[in-house]
Design a protein that fits this description.
7 strands, globular, homodimer, alpha/beta, about 190 residues, Maf protein, 7-stranded mixed β-sheet
Chain lengths: ~190, ~190
């Protein structure tokens, strides 16, 4: 109903994140998930942190470029966590997860999601930034979270929708769903134009 | 583990909201829900909007005052939606819901949740405010939402965790869970002191 212009389109979400799939479903869209593995996720170190997520989303979209067919719309995304201009990736192991959560504790960081939406005749990419404020996290809370939630697949070692987000975050500025992995409101606006 | 001081306490959530129950569960707490019906929810019109939710939470807690036993901790809450100093209640009917969403469209409003936490020997109450920014909502989107989600039990006629929150809200300032009905991070901090 709302997406009359998308009626004959096949939307492809090129992300293996179950959270992104869930968020896109909440828009009421029909789509399929298609993922290529082995895409290089490094970037030129001269990029500014706020450019990295957008660059990676576009880079991912490029890997599908030759496969896009008529009526298809491809969506790719990348989320980074940025603390004082350093980018936090997925933690390598337990100690690395502790190190990241210690770093995020008691202060502000940025979560930036880059998105690329691409059809045969149109391509748009944008980044969306949310400020996230963590309260002080004590050692016991950090250990409890890592042991029980194993955030090894998450940039910055946390999911805002998990226990640590409930007990540790009292303020964000921007989109909540962007922190989870997709700025769904902006995606909705852009899709209406496709 | 985290709540050592609460081990022998019986927490009572005095709210019939399934969203509040779900939010409190995410803290990892064990509690029971106990609700009195027929509590008067009017307030003195001389109260400022930012005082109303706190007043109502305390007023609700008072209704249970004589029943609190040793080791019990009672939690009550009230959430209001405030646009340009007017308080929006639950909508009376379809047209009232349309009116409220038209009012909230394309601008900022406040969601204020007041909380009262009470044991035999301690009582604390506080309010938590989140700014919410709606994009422009068109007639079609408003109708689609009301028809499909029937937000008649929700102050301001919307749930941020429902479709309209995904397509319409691109920014908040403050706690997301506070908009859903409980400022869980602040409740967690306070419970640690009980």
């Amino acid at each position: 109903m709302i997406f009359n212009n998308l009626k004959n389109k096949n939307i492809i979400l090129a992300s293996k994140s179950p959270r992104r799939k869930q968020l896109l479903e909440e828009l009421g869209l029909t789509f399929e998930v298609k993922v290529k593995s082995g895409i290089d996720e490094t970037w030129n170190k001269e990029l500014k942190p706020e450019q990295v997520a957008g660059y990676l989303a576009e880079h991912k979209a490029k890997q599908y470029e030759h496969e896009i067919t008529e009526n298809q719309i491809l969506i790719t995304a990348d989320t980074i966590v940025c603390k004082d201009n350093d980018i936090l990736n997925k933690p390598a192991d337990y100690d690395d997860a502790v190190r990241m959560l210690d770093l995020l504790s008691d202060g502000k960081h940025l979560v930036i999601t880059g998105v690329c939406i691409k059809s045969l005749d149109r391509s748009v990419s944008f980044s969306c930034t949310t400020e996230v404020y963590f309260k002080h996290l004590c050692e016991e809370e950090i250990d409890y979270y890592i042991e029980n939630y194993k955030p090894y697949d998450k940039a910055g070692s946390y999911g805002i929708q998990e226990w640590i987000g409930y007990i540790g975050i009292d303020k964000i500025v921007g989109s909540f769903y962007n922190v989870m992995g997709l700025p769904v409101q902006k995606i909705y606006e852009e899709l209406k134009k496709f």
